[in-house]
Amino acid sequence: MNWRTRIFCLALTLACLAMGSSLADAADPGDQLTDYSKSSWTEAFDLLHRRFSSEYAFSEWKGIQWDRLASEARPVIEQAQETGDLEAYYLALRKYVNAIPDGHVRMSFLPEIDQKHVGGGFGFAPVLLADGTVIAAWVGEGTEAYSAGLRAGDELIHWNNRPVREAIDAASAIFASNAATDEGALLKRTAYFARAGAGSQGMLLFRNASGETVSAALTAYDDEMVTIFKVYPSAVVSDRLREMILGAHSDAPPLAGMVTSDMMDDHIAYIRVWGELDLDLSGTGSAPSTVALFQSAVEEAVRSGRDKMILDLRNNVGGLDEMSAALLGSFYGEPAFYEYQNDYNYQAGTRRIIRAMPESEALLITPADTVFTGRVIALINQKCVSSGEGLAQGIRNLQNGDTLGFYGTNGSYGLTGSEAVMP
After folding, report:
1. What are the residues whose beta carbons fall under 8 Å from the beta carbon of 183, sequence distance 6 or more?
2. Same domain as 143, residue 73
3. Are residues 251 and 396 in the same domain?
4. Are residues 99 and 141 in the same domain?
5. Residue 20: its pLDDT value, please?
6. Over the stretch 86-108, which tens digit does the pLDDT of each residue have?
7. 185 and 308 assigned to the same domain
8. Does the pLDDT of residue 5 top 70, yes or no?
9. Closest CA to 9 of 420, 402, 381, 390
10. Given this model, what pLDDT does residue 27 score?
């Protein structure tokens, strides 16, 4: 069988911004697919590493130690090549790619290997609280954990004979999407520390609501990754747009548009923005303007006398920076700087400023016809990503604006780019 794993690389871009730390969510049209599939495993890795380490935009800012990452991965890949061990090669690549702190850096999956390592759950979904306590956020009825008396809200004390926080700190989340922040990495390790291959054994010590300490021997079973979706934000905040884009099954009704709004009471307007894109979500054959829908909602808020606004950016998928700047025009009474875009010139091997418009290197926020001047709170979470984060920061930069969330945004506001196909 001809095995291939595809690595989706960040298009190695940099924005030197007064308001943020990155750029648009669209591919460089001059960037081509890089195919290393005819090379040996070690040769392909060396070529991939050379590209990452030379072209990735945020290496210095994020303190990425490329030499260390390569020195950890290459010997494992070299040994895997000598023995023909596909699994070891794949896992080494996953560990290497996952160590790059950027949500725009992705690697495709080999489900048969992933299932072997994290396909099994133990019947409960853990969540880390602000005070450091770890509790069960969900327990599946009919599972061994449920039969042992574990219920949602019970405190998790030990996992496999070590304190739960130690187990979390030691956990690997290489099968999760990349975490761009320390906070995001901690949340992913928390979600994955109690996952293993189906049939694996686990020992849980927990404290129930009565204060009793209970020990439970558990066996992992194929739960279709249910525990990953039973914690915040997946269990609380709709991810309907991502589901529609990916074609994933959902019992939730389809979205009618990229912008929804509600005039909540005499003073508060609520507007949700799912992404900075024009999409035909209703199957009409044409995509309505997201900017026009948003400006119409803002105009209604102003016309009806609302002086406070909740702008919901939770689970915002990102999109186009030009659209983020246009949406912010509904809150800025004067033109304002939004960003520069600086990406890698493959021919020259240097970086270049991309002109946002013929007369200017910078992308600007231009006031809309109607500007909302009241108090604005942008709701955010870890799934507010890319250009959605630029929109959030534009609100926070307002004198009358701020952001609010249990967690920060994803930390992956950048320009996506080339793919590399690995052997």
Report:
1. 382, 407, 408
2. no
3. yes
4. no
5. 33
6. 999 999 999 999 999 999 999 99
7. no
8. no
9. 420
10. 37
Pair 261, 292: CB distance under 8 Å: no
Q: CA–CA separation, 420 vs 8, rounded Å?
A: 6
Q: Report how far residue 132's alpha carbon sits from residue 165's, in angstroms, rounded to the nearest whole number.
A: 8
How many helices (H) and strands (E) are present in the chain, helices listed first?
A: 12, 23
Instruction: Work out how many domains the chain is built from and give that number.
Output: 3
Residue where a domain terminates, one of 193, 224, 255: 224
Predicted model pTM: 0.89
pLDDT digits (tens, 9 = 90+) for 290-321: 999 999 999 999 999 999 999 999 999 999 99
pLDDT of 195 reads: 98
Q: Specify the amino acid at residue 145.
A: A
Q: State how far the Cα of 190 lies from the Cα of 260, in Å rounded to an integer.
A: 33
Asked if residue 114 is part of any domain, the answer here is: no
The reply to whether 87 falls in a domain is yes
b/e for 306-333, b at 16 or more Cβ within 10 A? bebbbbbbbbbbbbbbbbbbbbbbbbbe
34-35: strand order across its sheet: 34-35, 416-422, 5-10, 106-107
Say yes or no: 189 and 260 in one domain.
no
Phi, psi of 2 (to 5 degrees): -90, 95
Count of alpha carbons within 13 angstroms of residue 406, beta-carbon side: 15
- Return the amino acid letter for 251: D
Residue 268: count other Cβ atoms within 10 Å of its Cβ.
17
Residue 6 CA to its chain's centroid (Å): 19
Same structural domain for residues 209 and 349? no
Structure tokens of 278? Answer: 């024009």
365: helix, coil or strand? Answer: strand
The verdict on whether omega for the bond into residue 75 sits within 30 degrees of 0, i.e. cis, is: no
229 with 383: CB under 8 angstroms?
no
Residues 39 and 180 in one domain: no
Q: Which structural domain range is residue 398 located in?
A: 240-418
- DSSP 3-state assignment of 155? strand
Q: Are strands 350-354 and 259-263 parallel, antiparallel or unpaired?
A: unpaired
Beta strands in 140-200 (DSSP E): 155-159, 162-163, 195-196
32 and 94 co-located in one domain: yes
CATH at 213? 2.30.42.10
Backbone angles phi, psi at 16, to 5 degrees: -95, 95
